[in-house]
Design goal:
The chain has about 210 residues and is of the alpha/beta class. The chain has helices spanning about 20-25, 30-45, 105-120, 135-145, 160-170, 185-190, 195-205; strands at about 5, 15-20, 125, 150-155, 175, 190-195. α2 crosses α3 (about 105-120) and α4 (about 135-145) crosses α5.
Length: about 210
């Protein structure tokens, strides 16, 4: 069972915590993590690319010249794809790139991502993160004190507007709650900073 030190906002150790083996100590499955990353990126695509087919381009209703006798190739419309200002062959149209992934695969991918971070010693457990005011400097000072990487994911047990808005201004730092975590953000972060109360919620959901 993985055991990690718990630190406060000043970076001082205030105890230890035992992490659930079933969530933070499994053998990471690279295939399912890759599948979830592809799923996440596909869901971020807008899918609004659009072009006009020959049927949608304005004009071209009249036959340019008669069918035979001109010595030129027969043409039926000046909006055919080979003409300038013509339509696009197999024109892209707005579409949804999302696809669903099996629930068991999603759960395995999340546990693999947590375990991968635990194996690489990229998880930092913080006793609590509390701010009296909206202050980016305090979050920066905390991240420096606990030795967080430049790209950090802060995992909160619940929505805390002061912490979220204070961290929003810091390049490379993202915040998430237990119910909004995804594999891409976990793997993309150099450090996974989890509030102690959020650990029990993660284990409750994924154990």
């Amino acid at each position: 069972m993985p055991s990690l030190s718990v630190v406060n906002m000043e970076g001082k150790s205030v105890g230890t915590i035992e992490l659930a083996e079933s969530v933070f100590g499994i053998e990471p499955n690279a295939a399912v993590m890759h599948q979830m990353v592809v799923n996440y990126l596909a869901s971020q695509r807008q899918g609004t690319q659009s072009a006009l087919t020959r049927a949608e381009v304005s004009g071209g209703g009249k036959k340019p010249w008669r069918q035979k006798g001109t010595g030129r190739a027969r043409q039926g419309s000046t909006r055919s794809p080979q003409w300038t200002h013509g339509g696009v062959v197999f024109a892209p149209k707005p579409r949804n790139y999302r696809f669903t992934v099996n629930k068991k695969v999603r759960r395995l991918a999340m546990k693999s991502a947590f375990s991968s971070k635990a194996q690489e010693n990229e998880i930092i457990i913080v006793d609590s993160i509390s701010l009296d005011e909206y202050k980016t400097k305090k979050i920066v000072a905390m991240l420096n004190a606990i030795g967080a990487a430049k790209k950090t994911l802060l995992v909160l047990p619940e929505v805390d507007s002061k912490v979220i808005k204070s961290a929003n201004n810091i390049p490379g730092v993202k915040t998430a709650q237990v119910n909004t975590l995804n594999v891409y953000d976990i793997l993309n972060a150099g450090s996974l900073v989890i509030v102690k109360d959020a650990v029990s919620k993660i284990e409750e959901v994924y154990a």
